[in-house]
Design a protein that fits this description.
The radius of gyration is 25 Å and the shape is elongated. It folds into two domains: about 10-220, NAD(P)-binding Rossmann-like Domain (Rossmann fold); about 220-480, Rossmann fold (3-Layer(aba) Sandwich), CATH 3.40.50.720. With about 475 residues, the chain is an alpha/beta fold. It has helices at about 20-30, 40-45, 60-70, 80-85, 110-125, 140-150, 180-185, 195-205, 220-250, 255-265, 285-295, 300-330, 355-365, 380-385, 405, 420, 435-440, 440-445, 465-470, and strands at about 10, 35, 75, 90, 130-135, 165-170, 190-195, 215-220, 335-340, 370-375, 410-415, 425-430, 455, 475. The structure holds uridine-5'-diphosphate-xylopyranose (UDX) and adenosine-5'-diphosphate (ADP).
Amino acid sequence: MNVPQIRNICCIGAGYVGGPTMAVIADRCPNIQVNVVDLNEARIAAWNDPDLSKLPVYEPGLDVVVARARGRNLYFSTEVDVAIAGADMVFISVNTPTKAKGLGAGQASDLRWVEACARQVAQCAKGHTIVVEKSTLPVRTAEAVDLILKAAQRQVVDGEPPISFAVLSNPEFLAEGTAIRDLESPDRVLIGGENADAIQALVEVYRQWVPHEKILLTNLWSSELSKLTANAFLAQRISSINSLAALCEVTGADVREVARAIGSDSRIGSKFLQAGPGFGGSCFQKDILNLVYLCRHFGLPEVADYWENVVALNTWQQHRISRLVVQKLFGTVTGKRLALLGFAFKADTNDTREAPAICIANDLLEEGAQLAIYDPKVDSEQIARDLQLLASSPPDAQAGPTRAALSGEGTWWTCSNVAAAVAGADAVLILTEWQQFRQLDWAALAPLMRRPAWVFDARAVVDPDAVRASGLMLWRVGDGSL
Ligand code: UDX
Ligand code: ADP
């Protein structure tokens, strides 16, 4: 074997995956220089900001890891070509969203950024370079990356050293909100590939902190497919429990009791059985739709339909919640003020990609509601991009209804705390399970609301007795006992 020793890593893409992953690699491997590069100058500037609260990704513990490694062996820059040229190993960690148009629109992944990266690596790499796919990709993407790179391979030409490549798949399983913990002590690290030396080189990077038995080796295609399958299974559990939450609500059962009862069967297990407003995040929907596209492509329509229904149920759950809010508020929310607590797709992240809050807020805006939104980590600019609607100025609590309210036009604005969002509202909707929403003082909040007033707890985080004792009506996801 001729295992190359990795001294210099380049990661293309400084997003939610590339940033935290490379920060942990740099932290755990002080002997390796890690350069994280991105075309987005503002993002790189934020990664380099001396004020660690301004990092572009909010993730508990990330600031501490970045503080230890940045400037020592962790660097963020926009100099993509230079970083590729100096690297023994290049991670591709760019975005692969669902295609918006063209062949496979709405299902297949858009691989234009991955392909652009492969071409850039082909052009700039020197010597032997191991290229690692980190982004979640459809099965057999490595083949395309490999072909592009192979076309650039060459023997010694005019005294210039040879150029060669090896391609590996190393999908990332971190979940946002727990990324640092997941990276520091992963359940497993998956490495797929054919080139034994390249595989061993990557194993030796992870071996600096991951126990040997947690590093799983597969062929390239199994590795790519395992990532899609893991996300599909996790998402399927959420759709399963959400489907039963709806049944619990009409039968007098409580989905948390059902989840506890089935979760204590060791064959089923207790994780990922929390009913909620539906799954969000950049991975689940995208990966399932990818799987659906692949199944159709390979002539397996029944398999495609099976998985597609996991997404269909998730979309239904989101609309079900907005419909239910309208129904409980006497069939109309036009001109009514509603407090939305939480906009991120889950707690402990500032990421809003595919957040259920987007769909629910859009439905309510369509009905003419006035939304007062509070999220501890998501800013107003992000919400405006997600809702494709500019924020309105917050109405004066003392003045009467605004013109927009009377005309039936939906509007929204952000608030800097829960009390400001709740003031004057007919209902509170809890859409993200931030810790602080578990400890709300309902006795203090209730008098701020217009009666009769509702709490719609889509994450089941409130204390039902405290809410009802303060004179508010309560709906809790999956709770038919209310
Ligand atoms: C997921 C996978 O967990 C991770 O392995 C992969 O690398 C990327 O996709 P992520 O999307 O960051 O991670 O978060 P995750 O914790 O999986 O939650 C996804 C969504 O499911 C969130 O909207 C969350 O609120 C929801 N969820 C999760 C539930 O509604 N109920 C649950 O029991 C668990
Ligand atoms: P993920 O959640 O997979 O990390 P993000 O969208 O958060 O996805 O991050 C992907 C990053 O990749 C973005 O910051 C984007 O600017 C960057 N990117 C995409 N294409 C390229 C490229 N060809 N070169 C450098 N950076 C790129």
